[in-house]
Design goal:
Keywords: Membrane, Transmembrane, Transmembrane helix. The protein is 76% helix and 2% strand. It is built from 18 helices and 2 strands.
Amino acid sequence: MSRGGNAAPQELPPRTQLIATIGAILALALASIDVSVVGAAMPRIADELNGLGLYAWVGVSYAVAAAVVVPIAGKFGDMFGRKPVLLTGLAGFVVASWLCGFAQTMPQLVGFRGLAGLFGGILMANIFTMLADIYTPERRTQMQGVFFGVAGLSMVIGPPIGGLITDAWSWRWVFYVNVPLGLLAILAVVVGVPYVRSSASWRDIDFGGVVTLIAGVVPILIGLTLTGQGHAWTSPEVLALVIGGALMLVVFFLVETRKAANPLVPFPMFRQNQFAVMVVVAFFSAFAMMGVTFYVPLLYQGVLGVSATHSGTLLIPMTLGLMLVGPIAGKAMTAMTHYRYLAVFAMLAIVAGLWMLSTVGTHTGQVVPIVAMVLIGVGIGIAFPMATAVVQSAIPMSQMGVGTSQIQFWRMFAGPVSLAILGSILTGQVGVRGQSGVFGGGGVSPEQLAGALHDVFLTSAIAVCVGLVATFFLKEVPLRDMSMAKKAAGKGHKGKTVTA
């Protein structure tokens, strides 16, 4: 079976399609569940490795490496085919997971988690794009919702699994269990995923873009992370990192638009209505999710007096909304002519949920925050798969990896931005007492904390309004009709598809 590099995919045999889907779901589950599983084991890890001072950097190293590699891996998937890039990510993730489990010191673990983040980013850049290789456009839109449902389920089950493994065996097995699952995913991908043989070579890689993108994004992400760890926005460390990174991104833009023959990020894509609107939607929906995930437990514990154990379970309404609504939203989008209204509803639900959280006080009770979490989960459950599905229907097949990975990149970039901005607001309100984590007594009173979190969630709601406004300007493209992509066949990378 062969097709041009820009053509819509042909239907694979059911058995092959099932195996490929299993491989993709296993890869997604590995990448999605890994962070939450490790988070549950981190207190034990920090205690055994004597590394409390580097506690946060275990997560930071993973997140920064994953975010910066996503655009690069997405481009490589377009150039060399999704299958070899995805297999590279899986193999590297398995090795990095074993190394993390073998770590003897906290600095080693930070380094190995950065390596795992690198390969995890490769997976996240190509998993959702791979759906375009194994499903027809109509089924692909529906499967986007299913896959985001899997990601939501991973968020729910990750912490209890991590705690169970840590208590029953050892924290090292939190990493070691990735090895057999990763090997199973590799086998499924080898057997089921079609291989796109491309004429591209290493000489076609935009090395200038790769270097300048890394030099720009990494300092900015680290600088934003520092603001959430007690550094002021005006501190020399933060200013040097953020300004230096911004200047390098200017150089990256010049390289991409004036020098690169095969740019890593085709900037004209941002002038396309569907792509630009969905980038905004992806960014602000992820901005909201990160803020809710990080600050709702604080709301429950510090304002409503809920125990730490119970407060973690109260995030479930949001993650269940993401898990259950995603597949339904995928089917609804293919059935609606004007799915722009669904996008408007999604962002409006997120704004409403954040506003409700901003009204919570010491005497509010738990009903209001739970309803708010459901609204936010429903909104995110629609917005996440819609952003990916619309972009994949609007861009040619030759840029599928670039477009899809850009959506993923802006979601990942939104996390540090959200925590930096919202963390600065919280710190500005409660001062140094709030950083000690002591509520009541000599620390921050529940009333003071409620006032600070009011500003945090209200700021989030106002920010997400930008995404809400953007949805009104979305120009719908058919999510099932890929005739334009078929007509453009052969204008992208030359190559043919060879089924596994």
